[in-house]
Design brief:
By secondary structure, chain A is α+β, with helices and mostly antiparallel strands. In chain A, 34% of the residues lie in helices and 32% in strands. Chain A has one domain (2-81): Mth169, Chain: A. In chain A, strands 2-1-3 form a 3-stranded antiparallel sheet, with helices on one face. Chain B has helices at residues 14-23, 67-76, 86-93, 150-158, 216-227; strands at 2-7, 27-32, 43-46, 80-84, 100-102, 110-118, 134-141, 145-147, 162-167, 186-190, 196-199. Classes of the chains: A alpha+beta, B alpha/beta.
């Protein structure tokens, strides 16, 4: 059994009002060294299969087709054996 | 003519659209999202709501509903498609319209009347409006902050695809009157061919003066006029 961890974030240059608010809140709590804050999504998938390179390709395809919207988001993922 | 209204799990404006079509004396029926036959319809409406609970992203799951393949074919053949609010979001996710929707700049769900300026009166959705006319139509959304890359925007401007922009009551397009932060105050766009419209305001909620505005009628009546030619 493999497990994929997919991270989806807004692309650079796209305004992230949620991240901006969190940044301000952290600043008001006294954490003055916090720079730009970006909020994203973390999606965890369990996958059946043994061929890691095939699974790698599949996760990439799924991330592109559904898990992210390529117009505004980018993604990275980790694939590991459980 | 006949309107068809696609109903996804979580749609909630289909009855308003049905009422609007009925009000102007046209035939109308609901289309469950599992259907794949769109023969006999002149205009398909993707209504507002929260299809699939807005899970993952607005419209992200609805784009894989069985009806969507048929809708793409319907649009390719020149059929009229109008996506309102969540329907607009679905059209973006499915690639029938360019760009994507982000969360409102103020992070709040906004439900109020807005003014939108008609930028192009030669589309099948706007022939009953005047160029520069200001329509008063309500919005109700959390993700209406439209975004497209600079190159895409440039093409859309060149092709006259930007149909509606948020403006003040006199038609001045200003940042102050942009409710959600959408790029270039965009409230509604069409595809390049002009037969697919997506818009955030709800014309079906602005059909009678007694309810605040009947400016939405102009969009519905334009569609009727375009399909009866």
């Amino acid at each position: 059994m493999y497990k994929a961890k997919v991270y989806v974030t807004l692309k650079e240059g796209i305004l992230d009002p949620q991240g901006a608010i969190i940044g301000k809140a952290l600043d008001s709590l006294g954490y003055k060294n916090v720079g730009n804050v970006r909020v994203g999504k973390f999606i965890q998938l369990e996958l059946e299969g043994t061929d890691k390179s095939k699974l790698n390709k599949q996760v990439d395809e799924m991330s592109h087709r559904l898990l992210s919207n390529p117009v505004i988001e980018s993604y990275t993922f980790e694939l590991g054996e459980e | 003519m006949r309107f068809g209204i696609v109903v996804f799990p979580g749609s909630n404006c289909e009855q308003d659209c049905y009422y609007a079509a009925h009000l102007i004396g046209e035939q109308v029926s609901y289309i469950w999202h599992h259907e794949t036959n769109l023969n006999g319809y002149d205009c398909i409406i993707l209504p507002g709501g929260f299809s699939y609970g807005d899970y993952l992203r607005t419209g992200a799951v609805a784009k894989f509903s069985p009806v969507m393949d048929a809708l793409v074919t319907f649009a390719e053949k020149g059929g009229l498609v109008i996506g309102i609010c969540n329907g607009f979001q679905i059209l973006l996710e499915s690639g029938l319209l360019p760009g994507a929707m982000l969360r409102n700049k103020g992070l709040k769900f906004i439900c109020k009347y807005v003014n939108v300026k008609v930028e192009n009166t030669s589309t099948p959705f706007t022939t009953k409006t005047l160029r520069g006319e200001v329509l008063r139509i309500p919005i109700a959304h959390n993700e209406g902050n439209y975004y497209a890359e600079a190159g895409v925007l440039e093409d859309m401007n060149k092709n006259g695809q930007i149909i509606l922009r948020y403006c003040d009551p006199h038609g001045d397009v200003t940042e102050e009157w942009n409710p959600n932060g959408s790029i270039e105050n965009i409230a509604g766009i069409t595809n390049k061919e002009g037969n697919v419209l997506g818009l955030m305001p709800h014309p079906e909620r602005a059909m009678e003066e007694i309810l605040g505005s009947e400016d939405g009628r102009k969009i519905f009546e334009s569609i009727v006029s375009a399909t009866s030619k």
